[in-house]
Amino acid sequence: SRASSTMAALTNDAPLASATTPLAQVDVSDPRLFESDAWQPVFARLRAEDPVHYCAQSRYGPYWSVSRYQDCMQVELNHQVFSSASELGGIQIEDQTFPKRFQRRSFYKNQ
């Protein structure tokens, strides 16, 4: 059915990230990390080995994640360097209305 094919497209069949996953494959936007309460070792590793982590491929597209407190504060407070201005690409936190075939599950809220 169309609904099951849409759900299949939203399902991530990749292995769940762990403390031993190659850094290039770590995707902290994977909701399974939080559903299974397996996020802590992954974030501990990122803080130790790759505190400003680039994820090239995810169900939400490429993104940067910042995992150390002081780095997060620098990003939050330095608007001249770290901008979410729409002229520079902006930040989309919540899914927008797209045709059904382009809709995706959000990793931060229940749907």
Notes on the structure:
The structure is a single chain. This protein is mainly alpha-helical. It has helices at residues 2-10, 31-35, 39-49, 69-77, and strands at 52-55, 63-66. The longest helix has 11 residues, at 39-49. The protein is globular, with a radius of gyration of 16 Å. The two termini are 20 Å apart.
Kindly state the number of beta strands.
2
If helices are DSSP runs of H or I spanning 4 or more residues, what is the number of helices? 4
Pairing-aware structural class of the strands and helices? mainly alpha
What is the element string, with H for helices and E for strands? HHHEEH
* Residues in β-strands, percent: 5-15%
Keywords summarizing the entry:
globular; 31% helix; two-stranded antiparallel ribbon; 111 residues; mainly alpha
